[in-house]
Structure formats: C-alpha cells, structure tokens
Amino acid sequence: MDFVNHLSTNNIKPSLQRIKIFEYLYDNREHPTVDTIYSDLVSDIPTLSKTTVYNTLKLFIDNGITSTVTIEDNEVRYDAIMEEHAHFKCDACGNVYDIEIDMSDLKFKKMNAFKVEKTNIYLKGKCNKCLITKN
Amino acid sequence: MDFVNHLSTNNIKPSLQRIKIFEYLYDNREHPTVDTIYSDLVSDIPTLSKTTVYNTLKLFIDNGITSTVTIEDNEVRYDAIMEEHAHFKCDACGNVYDIEIDMSDLKFKKMNAFKVEKTNIYLKGKCNKCLITKN
DNA sequence: TATAAAATTGTAATGATTACAAAATTATGT
DNA sequence: ACATAATTTTGTAATCATTACAATTTTATA
C-alpha cells in the first residue's frame, strides 16, 4: 500500500502527520480511538498534537478514505478499510474485529419508502479468546 | 400497553417520572435524545431534572426495557421497542425510522471465532419525503 | 406518626470534541 | 534563491454532553 499515493489521489496533501496517521490506521486493524492513535504516534512524532489527529481524521472522512465505527455511545473508533464489512465487538475484552459479510442477503420489508445509501452492521458477544480464558 | 405493569414486572418501581418517560419513549417512535425527552416532558412535569432523565434511561437499559441507538457519533438516541428490528436514518432530515428485518438471512464468514449475542443493523440514505421535497 | 429507604433534583466536575489564533511549514511568483 | 502567500500544525481556551455527588423530597416501613 502506497500511502502517499493513496492520499494524493484522494485530494489530500501527504504531510508527514497525515501519512503516519493513515499508515497507523491501515496497519492497526483494531479500530483505534483518537487517544490510542495519539498515544501510539507521539513517540514517533514528538510534536504531534491531539488536535491534529482530530483534524486529520475529519479530513480523511470528508475525503472518503476513513469511516467512523460507532458501536458504543461513549467511544468513537476509526477504520481505514472502506470495503464492505461488518464488525464484531467482544464485550469481555472490548476488542472490535472485522467480519466478512454478504449484505445482499439482507431482506428488508417496506423499504420502498427509503433510498438506502449505506448499510451498517455490527455484532456483539464474546470472542473465543475470552470464552476460553474467563469461562 | 400498561406502563405501570410493564415497569413493575421488570423490577422498576413505577414512579411518576419513570412512567412518563417510558410512556414518552414508547409512544414517540422517532428515537428521541435525552434533550428531546427532557424538553417535551418538562411542561408536563415542571420539576423534572435532566439528571433524572439520564438516571431513568440508565435504569431502563440495565433492566432491559430500553436500548440505545448509536448511529452518529455525536448523538445518543433511545428506543423502547425491544423486538428485533433495524433502523434507517435519513441524512437529509435526520429522522430515524424503524425497519422490519429478518436477520436470520445474514451470512457471516469465519464466525466460528465468536459467540454472537446481539446483531445491530442500521441503514443510511434519504427518506422519500426528503427525496420528493428537496430534489 | 416517626424513621428508614429510595427517588429526584441542582450544582459542580469530568472528559471528549471543537474553535480559534499563533507558529511552523510548504508552495508560489519573481 | 528569496520574499510572500497559502496551508498545515499546534496549544490553549471554549463548548457540550454526561456523570458524580450531596441535599432535598418523596415513598415505604415499623
């Protein structure tokens, strides 16, 4: 994945901060929060500001290369994978995993009243790691 | 719907505030926010406090008669309908509608790694009202 | 009716996000 | 290359939703 090129082709000038933040998001698939992104990157970019993380993520979202994952009402997570997929959140360890899904199987009723542009799915439960360890 | 009985059978003492808040949630199916609930009820219960609305909704959720609807990362909505259903949010007018859905049709891959307890689905797009009016 | 328990309320504290202006960096025209 | 303009980054302060907490009010109990 050529991050510089990916940013450029999406009308985002590839500054150091933007490259590093996108790279982090793309490589760390656990859907990190702003705080996690900031904490993990500040050692690499000592001048990094949390405001920059917020600004940059908003820029990514506006240009369609990142999306938010809102499962809990008190934490916003970010995801750089834009292909159709769903999420699973383990309510024991709190981790959020990607899930492959075929949304074409979904059958909605009375959908003539709406023009659907995006379908979001997330599951909750226990991941195997937590089932084995804690139970 | 006998609200007093519904609260009682779910281990919630049916105080005036609790009855009114649940009644409001159950009758107003547009998934209101705390602010909306408070604003609409304070004329009816002049002493009502926003803290009470927060406390009461938390109590409802803990006792399984209400759930949160988290579609946007900056607004928490509440829903008293606990039967399986999905949501549609119109990003023109902002309204959230209920949708009937058969989740048994969903096919996930690699799901052996998880024990799923709850499936959440929401769609985004434009409702017919907005498509006709604004376009 | 007195006392204890529970519910409600108002205010203050918290924490995430945003606004904003200054500083730093990068691009542009000559 | 240099001066100037534009953009990006940064830090601080403001905002807003939510929570903590203690006081008050209401309800239950003996």
Tell me about this structure.
Two copies of one chain form a homodimer. The first copy, chain A, has 135 residues and is an alpha+beta fold. Chain A has two domains: 3-79, Winged helix-like DNA-binding domain superfamily/Winged helix DNA-binding domain (Arc Repressor Mutant, subunit A); 86-134, Dna Ligase, domain 1. The first copy, chain A, is built from five helices and six strands; from the N terminus they run H-H-H-H-E-E-E-E-E-E-H. Chain A has helices at residues 3-9, 16-27, 34-41, 50-62, 128-134; strands spanning 67-69, 77-79, 86-90, 96-99, 101-102, 114-127. In chain A, the strands form two sheets. A three-stranded mixed sheet of chain A has the order 4-3-6. A two-stranded antiparallel sheet of chain A has the order 1-2. In chain A, helix 2 (16-27) packs across helix 4 (50-62). The radius of gyration of chain A is 17 Å and the shape is globular. The mean pLDDT of chain A is 94. Chain A binds chain B through residues 68, 70-73, 76, 86, 88, 90-91, 97, 99-102, 105-128, 131, and chain B through 68, 70-73, 76, 86, 88, 90-91, 97, 99-102, 105-128, 131. Chain A binds a DNA duplex (30 and 30 nucleotides) through helix 4.
